[in-house]
Design goal:
The complex is a heterodimer of chains A (383) and B (258). Chain A has 383 residues and is an alpha+beta fold. In chain A, 53% of the residues lie in helices and 15% in strands. In chain A, helix 4 packs antiparallel against helix 5, helix 7 runs parallel beside helix 9 and helix 9 crosses helix 11. The longest helix of chain A has 37 residues. Chain B contains seven helices and eleven strands. The chains are: A alpha+beta (383), B alpha/beta (258).
């Protein structure tokens, strides 16, 4: 069984890699420079199942497991982190919560279009005054007949510029604090649903990150995901799944930078030998390779635990923390190996370096993850 | 008329052995020249309806290429594997494939890649067709069904030849004739959850061991070594327009430009 799993994973990896090398690699630099979302590639990815990797086949998904999902995200991100981000967020924090917490009617209504990439999903939690402290959100939803009237200002929404289906975190019962937070599904086109300006970001530039604002937006009560007050639980479950995807994204970025660095080190000659013949470069390459392997193993461990139905939050937090920080180290070495060319946009490695930086920030900052992991350590080993 | 098609495929290594003669399993993949043959089969099934099987002769672990075929929508996958087949040259391979194909009858059309990326002989398709006594066209760039006969366009050295072929028949596919579609994730999942690979041995195809394997192989490869290519720079002199003309002529002479 284990051999068969490896063969299947290899086929998934190779087919994703060959697709991305063919469709994304030639345009990765241009879409980053222009800040353009590559619809032509996204449409093909939708047809191949990338937008519904773990969704059940009855709902037009590919029906795969978390390990497969992590592999796909890593391979996309190895070539284009911005698309890796799009696919990861869409799958894990938009589609997944609908599949896990949605009613049958809601799943039938939204999941097939999301799983096939006909519609793109987004997760709207962060606000100007509520980032890591998510329970500080101010968005409110007031019940009015068979709808909620929602006022919200959500920022840094990944996929915001192209999302059709947005999970909005709101206070339905402000007096209950964190227990009064709920999730409503808002759809582009609803009256009062406004896509704000696009953020001008350092990296992930092909992803249209925007704000999403709701002005007295009437959302039907049938769009409530789960129960009122279940928002915190939904958010945590979503982010737990999401951090495996982001960790896989960081591994992909690091892998890409490692390959760029190694390739250059083999070609460039200084002091009558290739860079790879110099010990300081060898040290960098070795550290990069170990970082990538270790990060990948942590991601796979978290994925396997989730697939086995075992608690995986700690493993996911560790994977995300380590992989994001590893991506920072690896891409930094990558730039250094390429020297002056590493600082030039004519070479890909600086894009990997810019893309890597945000992985320590979104879907839980490294600081938040350290808190989560420390809590786990104390539960396990503390007196 | 719905077509029953069988595509013969091979798992090959795309990298040379290391100093100890080993190649890691991950370096093995579907023969790139078989990819257009699979696409040709899939397109014919889409147009005419029917059934596609893939047949591969190889070691027992060479299942990935068949799984990829199942992921693409192939209906049936057969792996012919037996220790007695090891060391088979192209003739012994063709003998074995022909015996297996006898047992897979009835079929209308056999498709082969033009050659393999490892052996590179191009023998197996024609030899197998001969062993089965069916007509063959090589280097097909286009295939259409007209009633009960096949119209095949053969691409050869700047010419296109048109053939009308009775069925059952066999065709080898020109590498540029078709481009294999992408494998979908859902297809891969179905391939593993619902697809099966039938494992056939020598006993299943009723062949005597001395007709295959090393004993059944008139050809034996004594050794292989990589070719060393020395890189040389050729400078084209002259004003830019003349340089461009010369470059185009050189590329045409080398067959790199039409």
């Amino acid at each position: 069984m284990e051999t068969q799993l490896s063969e299947k994973l290899r086929i998934i990896k190779n087919s994703t890699r060959s697709f991305c090398d063919r469709e994304l690699r030639p345009i990765a630099r241009e879409i980053d420079q222009e800040g353009r979302f590559p619809w032509e590639a996204a449409d093909k990815m939708g047809a191949l199942g990338y937008f519904g990797i773990q969704a059940p086949r009855q709902l037009r998904g590919a029906g795969m497991d978390t390990l497969a999902y992590a592999t796909v995200i890593e391979e996309i991100s190895r070539v284009c982190a911005a698309m890796g981000l799009c696919v990861s967020v869409h799958n894990s924090v938009a589609l997944f919560p609908i599949l896990k917490f949605g009613s049958d009617r809601q799943k039938t209504r939204w999941a097939p279009d999301l799983a096939t990439g006909k519609k793109i999903g987004a997760f709207c939690l962060t606000e100007p005054n509520a980032g890591s402290d998510a329970s500080g959100i101010e968005a409110v939803a007031r019940r009015d007949g068979n709808a909620y009237v929602v006022n919200a200002n959500k920022v840094f929404v990944t996929n915001g510029g192209i999302a059709d289906i947005c999970l909005i975190f709101v206070r339905t019962a402000p007096e209950k604090g964190p227990r009064g937070i709920s999730v409503l599904v808002a759809e582009r086109g609803m009256s009062g649903f406004v896509v704000g300006d696009r953020e001008d970001l350092t990296g992930m530039r092909a992803n249209p990150v925007t704000s999403i604002r709701l002005y007295d937006c009437r959302i039907p009560s049938g769009n409530l995901l789960g129960r009122e007050g279940q928002g915190l639980g939904i958010g945590l479950a979503a982010l737990d799944a999401g951090r495996i995807g982001i960790a896989a994204q960081a591994v992909g970025i690091a892998q890409g930078a490692l390959e760029e660095g190694a390739r250059y080190a083999g070609q460039r000659q200084q002091f009558r030998r290739s860079l790879a013949g110099h010990q300081s470069i060898q040290n960098m390459l070795a550290d990069m390779a170990v970082d990538v392997e270790a990060a990948r193993l942590l991601v796979h461990q978290a994925a396997r635990l989730r697939d086995a139905g075992k608690p995986f939050s700690q493993a996911a937090a560790m994977a995300k923390l380590f992989a994001a920080e590893a991506a920072g180290r690896v891409t930094d070495h990558g730039v250094q190996i390429l020297g002056g060319y590493g600082y030039s946009k004519s070479y890909a490695v600086e894009r990997y370096w810019r893309d890597a930086r945000v992985t320590r920030i979104y879907e839980g900052t490294s600081e938040i993850h350290r808190m989560v992991i420390a809590r786990g350590v104390m539960e396990r080993y503390g007196q | 008329m719905a077509l029953k098609i069988i595509v013969c495929i091979k798992t090959v290594a795309l990298q040379a052995p290391d100093t100890k003669g080993r190649i890691p399993r991950e370096a093995y993949t579907l023969n790139p020249f078989d990819q257009p043959a699979l696409e040709a089969a899939l397109e014919l099934k889409e147009t005419c309806g029917g059934h596609i099987a893939i047949l591969s002769m190889g070691p027992p672990w060479a299942t990935a290429a068949l799984r990829e075929g199942l992921a693409l929508g192939i209906d049936r996958a057969v792996l012919l594997s037996d220790p007695g087949l090891a060391g088979s040259d192209t003739l012994a391979t063709s003998t074995a494939l022909a015996a297996a194909l006898e047992r897979l009858k009835p079929w209308d059309l056999l498709l082969f890649g033009s050659r393999t990326a490892d052996g590179d002989t191009g023998h197996v398709g024609p030899q197998t067709a001969l062993g089965l006594d069916v007509p063959m066209v090589t280097g097909a760039g286009k295939i259409t069904l007209a009633g009960e006969e096949l119209r095949v366009e053969r691409k050869a050295d700047g010419l296109v030849e048109n053939f009308h072929m009775d069925l059952p028949g066999a065709v080898t596919i020109h590498p540029g004739g078709w481009h294999l579609r992408e494998i979908s994730l859902g297809g891969i999942e179905i391939s593993y959850s619902e697809g099966t690979i039938e494992n056939w041995s020598l006993a299943d195809i009723g062949l005597e061991p001395d007709r295959v394997g090393e004993n059944g192989s008139p050809t034996r490869v004594f050794s292989t070594r990589p070719i060393r290519r020395d890189k040389a720079c050729a400078f084209i002199e002259g004003p830019p327009s003349e340089q461009a003309d010369q470059l185009v002529d050189q590329l045409k002479d080398q067959g790199l430009l039409d």
